[in-house]
Every structure is written in C-alpha cells, then in structure tokens.
Write a structure and sequence with these properties.
- The chain is α/β, with parallel strands linked by helices.
- The protein has 9 helices and 15 strands.
- The protein has helices spanning 5-14, 34-41, 153-156, 170-180, 197-201, 205-209, 219-226, 251-260, 271-280, and strands at 49-51, 73-81, 91-97, 105-107, 127-128, 132-133, 145-152, 167-168, 189-193, 214-215, 230-233, 263-266, 284-288, 299-301, 305-307.
- The strands form 4 sheets. A 9-stranded mixed beta sheet has the order 1-15-13-7-9-11-12-4-14, with helices on both faces. It has a two-stranded antiparallel sheet with strand order 2-3.
- β11, α8 and β12 form a beta-alpha-beta unit.
- α1 (5-14) packs parallel to α8 (251-260).
- It starts with a helix and ends with a strand.
Length: 308
C-alpha cells in the first residue's frame, strides 16, 4: 500500500534534502552551532543533574513485538580471574547482547526509509547486511550537546499521564511552551513528556507500548518551523500508536528521519526531570546526549543527562 497524498504533501513542506549540502549525513544537528552550545551552557544555574535513561536490563521495555530487538542479555565472561598467576590482581569482565534500540536510545537517520530513499535522497539499499548503514549511521552524530527544552504536555493539560489515544498536536506543544515559560528555538533538543513511561516503570511492558499517546503527524511541521535539532519522548513508539490515520504506520518516523534529517529518541524517562523543572520553575537546561558511536548502526543506546 503506497503512502497517501497527505503524507507526501507534508513531506514536501518539511524536506531538508540538500539544505546542508549533498554530502551531509547529520541533518538538523547542523543547527547546533558553537553559539547554541554557549547559550545552552549559560542555562546552568544550580548544577543539578537529572539522568534520563532507563536501566539496561533483562525485563526492560521490549515485549517481543519487533523480532530481534531484545532487552540486554548480560553475561559474565570472567569472574575474579587472576590472569597473571596466583596472588596477582584479579579481573572480572562481561559482555552484552542487545537491540541497539532496546531501551533509551536515539534512532539514526537510517532507522527508517520510505519510497526507496533515506535522508538526503540517498538510496535505501545503501544499508546492507554486511556493513549496515553506509551513510548517516549513528556514528555520524558524534558529540551531542545542546540546550534541552522540556515540553511537559501532560502537566500542561493538567494530568499526570496522557490517555493512550491522545495524539500530541502542535497546539499541545505550544501550550506546553506557555506552561513552562519557554520558547523553543533553533538548535534546541526538545523532550516531549506524555507520562507514558510510568506504565513501563510499573512493569507493564505490553500496556506501555499499546495503546500509547505520542506525536501527531501534524507535529513535524511545528518542529521544522522552529528549526529543532532533535526530539525525544517517553514512549516506546514515539508517535501515537495505533496511528491516527488508518493504515499509515510510522509516518512521523519517516517525516523526521527521512525528510527532515532529524534524530528522534524513545524510552526517555522524563519523570524526575518533570519534577525538577516544576520545582525550579524553568524548563530549559543543558543536555548531554551523545550516542555510542557504533559504525554502520541505525540506532544507539544513550544515557542522557539534563543539567539545571
């Protein structure tokens, strides 16, 4: 089934192909300039640090819906081994097998494709089984530090958690700006809180994923107009699930990653950050969120930290 005309119309309006040159692999991260980072550093007042990552463990948020995307399987490969003989210093070592999008993560621009293309118009078949993503892999991100802005949509609507059928709209985002007394600007990393991660933290993996509030297909134009560098939220699917338009699956993924070249993140725990921002009365902060530089990978776990 081909994508509907409505999708293609939005895609034309938000498309960034060629904006930073035909060879570009980083998309909207180009909006994070030295000046943006200096201004981000200036938001730090108390030095309060809020971690935003879920634990990497078995029994995490993956329910088996996506084959192969498994929660981390941690294995000890040596325990207190005296490698250089009896009485010498002993070492313990471990290994892990996991889906790179298993817990708190960034999707690389190559995580999805549509109509045979990935970001900047490159062919989707440049992603191969042997090498992974030839262009725009998660390793292309490199460092990632900018001003973070929490748009606490749930609190702005006066609820602790949005209903499972709530599609977050541009109007919701604007209302969350007003609620937080903050204005999203070019180069920001926007964190959208729905409260849905509470379901995962309570141990209900299936309820966390379905039904789930999330971003509406109308929101990419809002982010595009503000020149946002990246967006993350506290849900499994990022966008509303099931979709708001029947049989149009993952349109926000395609618009963000393919058309705009904008990173998006899922499974971020924004609960403590929501509390801290409420206590301090401010919703902008320094955010560090560099992914692990897996060559050829289409996503990576991340351990973001907001510094207030």
């Amino acid at each position: 089934m081909s994508l509907p005309a409505e999708f293609h119309e939005i895609a034309k309006r938000v498309n960034n192909w060629g904006r930073w040159g035909g060879a570009d692999e980083r998309g909207t991260l180009n909006l994070i300039t030295d000046a943006v980072v200096r201004e981000a550093a200036a938001t730090v007042r108390t030095g309060r640090r809020i971690p935003l990552a879920l634990p990497l463990k078995q029994g995490g948020v993956q329910s088996g819906f996506i084959p192969g995307r498994i929660d981390p399987l941690h294995t000890m490969v040596q325990i207190n081994q005296e490698m250089f003989g009896p009485g010498t210093v002993a070492t313990s070592d471990d290994t892990v097998t996991m889906g790179l999008q298993a817990a708190t993560h960034w999707d690389a621009l190559t995580h999805v494709s549509h109509s045979g293309r990935i970001y900047n118009g490159r062919p989707a078949d440049t992603i191969t089984a042997h090498a992974g993503a030839e262009f725009s892999s998660i390793a292309a991100v490199g460092h990632l530090v900018s001003r973070g802005v929490l748009l606490d949509v749930a609190r702005a609507r006066g609820v602790d958690r949005l209903a499972g059928d709530h599609a977050v709209t541009p109007e919701d985002l604007a209302a969350a700006e007003e609620f937080g007394g903050v204005r999203v600007r070019a180069g920001d990393i926007v964190l959208v809180r729905t409260g849905q991660v509470q379901v995962a933290l309570a141990g209900d993996r299936h309820g966390y994923g379905y039904p789930s509030p999330g971003l509406s297909v109308r929101t990419p134009e809002w982010f595009h107009a503000r020149d946002v560098a990246a967006v993350a939220n506290d849900t499994l699917t990022f966008e509303i699930f099931p979709p708001e338009i029947e049989d149009l699956w993952l349109p926000v993924h395609a618009l963000h990653l393919v058309e705009m070249g904008m990173l998006q993140g899922q499974n971020w725990d924004l609960e403590a950050l929501s509390t801290a921002c409420t206590e301090e009365g401010r919703y902008a902060f320094l955010l560090t969120a560099a992914p692990e530089p897996f060559a050829g990978a289409t996503g990576s776990p991340v351990a973001p930290v907001a510094v207030l």
